[in-house]
Amino acid sequence: MSAAKNQENKAPATLRQVAEAAGVSVMTVSNVVRGKSVRPETRERVDEAIARLRYRPNTSARRLRLATQFSVGIVIADTDPNYLADPFISRVVSGLSNYLSSLDYTLDVQGISPARFENATILGKVGNDALCAILCGPRELRRRHLAHLERLGQPVIVFQEALPSPSRNIAMVRQDDAEGGRLLGQHLARKKIRSVLFLKPLLEWCAVEQREHGLKMALSQSAHNIELDSQLVPSESFEDVMSVVTQMLPIRVPGAIVAATDSMAVAALKAAEAMGLQVPKDLMIAGFNGFDFWRYTRPTLTTVVSPAYEMGKLGGELIVERIRTGRFSRRNSVLQVALQAGQSS
Amino acid sequence: MSAAKNQENKAPATLRQVAEAAGVSVMTVSNVVRGKSVRPETRERVDEAIARLRYRPNTSARRLRLATQFSVGIVIADTDPNYLADPFISRVVSGLSNYLSSLDYTLDVQGISPARFENATILGKVGNDALCAILCGPRELRRRHLAHLERLGQPVIVFQEALPSPSRNIAMVRQDDAEGGRLLGQHLARKKIRSVLFLKPLLEWCAVEQREHGLKMALSQSAHNIELDSQLVPSESFEDVMSVVTQMLPIRVPGAIVAATDSMAVAALKAAEAMGLQVPKDLMIAGFNGFDFWRYTRPTLTTVVSPAYEMGKLGGELIVERIRTGRFSRRNSVLQVALQAGQSS
DNA sequence: TTGAAAGCGTTACCAC
DNA sequence: GTGGTAACGCTTTCAA
Question: What's the pTM?
Answer without folding.
Answer: 0.95
